[in-house]
Amino acid sequence: MYDFESFQSCDTDDQKLENESVNQAIVENPVTFHCGQCNTVWADSRGICGEATSSNSLICLEVTQDVTINSGREWSLDGLFSACVYNTLQCAGCLCLMGVILYSTPQHLTALRNLFLLKKDKMYCYIFSTGQTVKASTLNFNVTPLGERVSELRQLIQETESHLSNVSAVMDDTRTNEATSSVQSTS
Ligand SMILES: [Zn+2]
């Protein structure tokens, strides 16, 4: 049985980066994520698609080969991931359990299915631009919420459609004029 309780034990690091722009500058640049115990590389910023704040975990599309997916499926009857079926993830270096992949979940966790959830309080980040290492728990990897991006895209599509309808209106006018002029020339 996986220890879900430690998911909830949010690291109360008092050095949290209060400056949002500093945070943004870091998380938008190349970062690698390492085991806090043995330094094994678990993931890098290309594979990160956000963070699940309720479980204090990074959400990753991909991880390195040094993250072992344990074969036995497990399930949880209570707690944060109650009624979920999942596989645990293990660091290949020191064998610590550091996350899960959820397979079957209740409706409210559907968005997290088949993604890697890595515990933030078990890892640190190496920031390429500055050569610094910081605890992952000091950074906020929440990217722009999907909802906002979808509405931005919708707006773009609407604008494009209105441009297109303007263009086709102009073309229709041109065709009508051509037709009219051809009729006039034959008469
Ligand atoms: Zn390790």
Automatic annotation (TrEMBL):
Biased composition (Polar residues): 177-187
Spans annotated as Disordered: 168-187
Residue ranges of every copy of the Mis18 domain listed in the record: 30-128
GO cellular component, one term: nucleus
Domain of life: Eukaryota
PANTHER family for this protein: NEUROGENIC PROTEIN MASTERMIND, PROTEIN MIS18-BETA
Annotated function: Required for recruitment of CENPA to centromeres and normal chromosome segregation during mitosis.
Protein name (record): Protein Mis18-beta
Originating species: Salvelinus namaycush
Native organism taxonomy: Eukaryota, Metazoa, Chordata, Craniata, Vertebrata
